[in-house]
Specification:
Blueprint: E1 4-10, H1 16-25, E2 30-36, H2 47-56, H3 63-75, E3 80-86, H4 93-101, E4 103-110, H5 119-122, E5 129-132, H6 135-141, E6 144-145, E7 162-169, H7 174-186, E8 191-196, E9 206-209, H8 215-223, E10 225-230, H9 241-248, E11 252-255, E12 271-273, H10 281-289, H11 297-301, H12 305-312
Parallel strand pairs: 1-2, 1-3, 3-4, 4-5, 5-6, 7-8, 7-10, 8-9, 10-11, 11-12
Helix pairs in contact: 1-12
């Protein structure tokens, strides 16, 4: 049996990529190297090294970056069949070239648009394949189209406590999210909006947290809610994981991403497209009362983690 050697390199991904790794590891002919770059931490042995690094950085030498590169390359013991990188713009050119030389196929998956991270375009030529879920970038730069995926379909039943659940990070959407939470609360809807940031924030209808919710915690809150709401960034057209959680868990979704109507799993009973700046709470209340329409398993399977894994890793 020919072994296929695959390496994944990616920053903090909330646990979503763990499902891809498990899918690969479940196959007996695949050897997986799983490199989470956010776990690579350099600690200065003393203050003198820290001061010296501050001086040498002026001349283009950085101890921390060298350590980061060494740690990644040290984990790749032999030439790979595929090296798969998320957020490749976070890696230095010299590291990208060394990785490319150590694999048959060098693949990037862009979580964000090139408008948001322009360096993704600068380093594009080094890759053999680039996948994206941003349709504009796919069309403009000839990237390969993919999407996020359904990573789980088993939801333990919980007593419904909330009409609408949301979890977001503090970013450019904050005023929009704050306004939506106010309108929905004043309309009598019971919401549970969680806002992550590294320090406590004060918003009247948002629950501030300084740590990321685990996927298990998120799953429990989804089970306790009638619907989820997804307020996407203006620079994002691709479908977020909220969409695929709603599909996998058979939960209603309220979203500002109008492109969702172009997918075969869209049904107006299950997914409500809103304009958050002209929100109609009565429309949302009527939507919540509609029966959920089951989507065929054949369609859902096209967006399952197993399908994503087969496609990206040529299985």
């Amino acid at each position: 049996m020919m072994l296929k050697k695959i390496t994944l390199i990616y920053p903090f991904a909330y646990g979503y990529l763990d499902y891809v790794v498990r899918e690969l590891e479940s196959r007996p002919n695949i050897v997986v190297t799983d490199i989470k770059t956010d776990t690579i931490k350099y600690t200065y042995p003393n203050i003198f090294v820290k001061v010296w690094n501050g001086i040498t950085k002026v001349f283009g030498s950085n101890i921390k970056k060298k350590y980061f590169t060494q740690q990644i390359l040290h984990q790749i013991k032999e030439k790979q069949d595929i090296i798969f990188v998320i957020r490749p713009d976070l890696l230095e050119d010299s590291l990208l070239k060394k990785l490319k030389a150590n694999t048959e196929i060098f693949t990037a998956y862009l979580y964000d648009s090139c408008q948001k991270f322009p360096r993704q375009l600068e380093i594009a030529p080094v890759f053999d394949e680039i996948y994206s879920y941003e349709k504009e970038d796919i069309k403009k730069y000839n990237f390969k189209e993919t999407s996020n995926f359904i990573y789980d379909e088993v939801l333990e039943p919980e007593e419904i406590q909330y009409d609408i659940f949301n979890v977001s990070s503090y970013d450019s959407r904050i005023n929009e999210i704050d306004a939506v939470s106010k309108i929905l609360t004043e309309a009598g809807l019971k919401i549970h909006f969680v806002l992550f940031w590294f320090e406590k924030l004060e918003y009247p209808h948002l629950i501030s947290t300084t740590r990321y919710l685990s996927l298990e915690e998120t799953k429990k809150l989804i089970s306790q809610s009638r619907a989820m709401i997804d307020i996407q960034r203006e620079d994002q057209q691709g479908l977020s994981f909220r969409t695929f959680e709603s599909l996998g868990y058979r939960k209603k979704l309220i979203t500002t991403n109008a492109s969702v109507k172009d997918y075969e799993f869209y049904h107006p009973n299950n997914i409500l497209i809103i304009d958050s700046y002209h929100l109609n709470p009565d429309e949302i209340k009527k939507f919540l009362e509609l029966d959920y329409i089951e989507i065929s398993q054949e369609i859902l399977d096209q967006y399952h983690v197993s399908h994503f894994t087969k496609k990206i890793f040529k299985l």
